[in-house]
Write a structure and sequence with these properties.
Blueprint: H1 6-12, H2 15-18, E1 21-23, H3 34-38, E2 44-45, E3 60-61, E4 81-83, H4 94-101
Antiparallel strand pairs: 1-4, 2-3
C-alpha cells in the first residue's frame, strides 16, 4: 500500500485548498498595512507605494508565496486574516479573490 506524503497532497490539491492564510471581508475599506510590514516574504499586496493601491478596496495574500508563518495574523487591527481552515464559511469566496489578485 502506498501512502502519499502530505506535501505531495498539497501540490495536487486545488490552489484554494492549498492556501495557508486568506484576507477576508473585514479588510475591505480598511487596508491597514501592518500585515505587509510583518510579512517576512513580501507576499501581501498591494503596498501603499504600488501604483494600484488605490484601485483595490482590500489587501491580498499570495497563496503561492506565503510560507504559512502566521506573522500577519496578530497585527491585523480588524481580524481580517484567517488560516484557511478557520475562514468563516460566509467569507469562503475570499480564497478565490486572494488567488485571483496574483493571477493564480
Amino acid at each position: 500500500m502506498s501512502v502519499t506524503p502530505p506535501a505531495a497532497r498539497l501540490v495536487a490539491a486545488p490552489l484554494e485548498k492549498r492556501m495557508a492564510y486568506v484576507i477576508a471581508e473585514p479588510c475591505i475599506g480598511t487596508k491597514d498595512t501592518a500585515c505587509i510590514d510583518a510579512c517576512p516574504v513580501d507576499c501581501i499586496h498591494p503596498k501603499k507605494d504600488e501604483p494600484n493601491f488605490a484601485e483595490h478596496n482590500m489587501i491580498y495574500i499570495d497563496p503561492v508565496e506565503c510560507i504559512d508563518c502566521g506573522a500577519c495574523v496578530p497585527v491585523c487591527p480588524v481580524s481580517a486574516i484567517f488560516a484557511l481552515d478557520d475562514l468563516p464559511e460566509k467569507w469562503g469566496s475570499f480564497t478565490k479573490l486572494n488567488a485571483e489578485y496574483f493571477g493564480r
